[in-house]
Write a structure and sequence with these properties.
Strands 1-2 form a two-stranded antiparallel sheet. The chain has 7 helices and 2 strands. A hairpin with a 2-residue loop joins strand 1 and strand 2. With 192 residues, it is mainly α. The longest helix is centred in the middle third of the chain and has 23 residues.
Length: 192
């Protein structure tokens, strides 16, 4: 299965979690330090549209332009549709793109970066709502493989601000827990 297909299936799974979002839910805390659900959804809307724009134009003008508007779920769903439409085009994954000023590189790599975001933020969303998270197992494996290339040096992470410090997990931890911990989240995080 292609990286894009794994991402598509993962995004469709997240829709079940996000679809019932109400205005009252937007203030819920998330595992993303300092972010509410509104912040997390706005980030996802921004990223989905920017990844799509980068594919269409070679790079995105603004990686933080997403807005939730009057209906957070509708904004989120529209951004997912934009991403899936762009990356689903014939030959799309052979294009060259810049992601967050990095690149150019093959859009297939961009799709892998987006997959990591999808799987990890899916976990964030599930934890935020206190619901079960059952990502596509192959998507978790692929995301973990790509995320393993993220620098682990705390100083580098502090400069980029994209990931928290590594979280220790027990030997033999599940792939999803290893992925979450690798990107600076505590797999045991619970909504308090």
């Amino acid at each position: 299965m292609t990286t894009f297909e794994l991402d598509r299936q993962s995004l469709l799974g997240l829709d079940k979690i996000v679809a019932g979002t109400t205005d009252q839910d937007l203030s819920r805390p998330t595992p993303c330090a300092g972010w509410t659900l509104a912040d997390l959804l706005r980030h996802q809307v921004s990223e989905n549209h920017a990844f799509a724009e980068a594919l269409r134009r070679g790079e995105a003008a603004d990686w933080d332009a997403g807005r939730l508007g009057e209906d957070a779920y509708a904004s989120y769903a529209a951004s997912v549709d934009d991403f899936l439409t762009a990356y689903g085009e014939e030959g799309a994954l052979r294009r060259q793109v810049k992601i967050h000023e990095i690149g150019p590189f093959a859009a297939e790599i961009a799709a892998a970066m987006h997959l990591v975001d999808t799987v990890v933020h899916g976990w964030d969303l599930a934890k935020t709502f206190g619901v079960a998270y059952e990502p596509v197992p192959e998507a978790v494996t692929a995301a973990l493989g790509f995320a393993a290339m993220v620098p682990t040096d705390p100083a580098e992470r502090a400069v980029s601000g994209a990931f928290g410090a590594l979280v220790e997990v027990p030997e033999g931890a599940a792939e999803l827990d290893r992925l979450i911990a690798l990107l600076g989240r505590d797999p045991g995080w619970q909504l308090s």
